[in-house]
Amino acid sequence: MAQSSMNTPYAQRLAEKFRESQGYLRANGFSRSTKTLYEDIETSTDK
Fold first, then answer.
1. Are 17 and 11 in contact (CB under 8 A)?
2. What is the pLDDT of residues 1-47, one digit of tens each?
């Protein structure tokens, strides 16, 4: 039943937006580590 709910148009759009967001973050050098999260925020605001 959970599998069929992932085939709804809303779920597909949500998954696509999630993939786009991950790609954006990777392309802009954001790290997954919480240690560098503060540094990521600082560098993004310096631009």
1. no
2. 455 556 899 989 999 999 998 888 888 777 666 667 777 777 777 55
Q: Return the structure tokens found at 32.
A: 């997954």
Instruction: Report residue 44 CA to chain centroid gap.
Output: 15
Map tokens 């973050």 to a residue.
25
d(CA 43, CA 25): 13
Cβ density class 30-43: b for 16+ within 10 Å, e for less: beeeeeeeeebeee
| 6 vs 2: CA distance, rounded Å | 7
